[in-house]
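Subject: Sanity check before I submit

Could someone independently write out the structure tokens for this chain? I want to compare against mine line by line before I put it in a report. The sequence has 353 residues.
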Amino acid sequence: MLSDNLSSKILTIGCDYRYPKGGVAQVMWNYSHYIFPEFKCIINSGSKNKIINIFIGVNALVRTIITLIKDSKIKIIHTHTASYNSFWRSSLFINVAKLFNKKVILHIHGGGFKRFYASSPKKISKILNNCDTLIVLSENWRNYFQNIVSNPNIEIANNIVPFPSINKTPLHKISTIHLLFLGQISEEKGIFDLLSVIIDNKSSFKNKICLHIGGIGNIQKLTETIENNGISDIVKYVGWISGDEKINILNSSDIFILPSYVEGLPVSILEAMSYKMPIISTPVGGIPEIVKDNINGYLIKPGDKNGLSWAINDLINNPSKIAQMGDESYNLVSPYFPNYIENQLIEIYNKLL
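---
Independent answer below. Compare away.
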């Protein structure tokens, strides 16, 4: 963990992380448990209700001002953000921090920023350039932001993954290969492409695989697709999972699949790698920096259902490859464990101080 002295100088701003339902919240939860001995945090969002979210945001702005008046130890405002409403909301806290002459870190999560930036490049660039440091999730994203900003330093801080509690059943002792998808239930995450592949191959996949889907989003379309196409014996929707339930499903799963169209650097992939799973995903965002094609999994083009089908079949027909690639995943994910991230953050904070 950070020293008490350094921790006392950081005020974190971001979404409700206490019961995390999403990648940003999960990162903040991990920070609160593994990095900061004292996690000074003001929650600026967390409700699906727009009116309630506005109230939370206004209340957070007031609390931020009061905190900065009362707590002279705070030197750095570390704001976690994504795109669209999250970014515009964060800009208000950046302005407040600058009024109090504080250093500002904007920690950018999520994979939709390029599309968002194209909607209003001048306004967004102005906000970005008002920050002292941008934290991004990969070298790919650093290269992108270097082309659109002139003022802030751009640093990479890996998404943090807790040390795993591995208790997996050896593959030779199981008859069904368990696939896992964890993420938002939406078109851009590729879940409906995956279901289409399952539907097209349901006769050959029957009794061979079971796909577990965890997440929130378009649940109605998901459940209707499963029921209307007769794949409920192959596909199981488990809802939002966390804590011991997540640990159990990570231990009981053999292959992780996330065929996304846009990404930053998914925490779900990192978690799966820490539980020794090969990954089937797409070469978007920072994913190619952690998933090495034909080493710890397969990278296929977004929307390539034939490629997705081939990758699934190749792994389920070669259990030894699942084990080999799973070991490679674990080796590649070690820079994302808490001790490594702690050192990255210490360096970033000390540069600003």
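---
OP: Matches mine. For the report I'm noting this point. Residues 32 and 39 are 6 Å apart (CA to CA).
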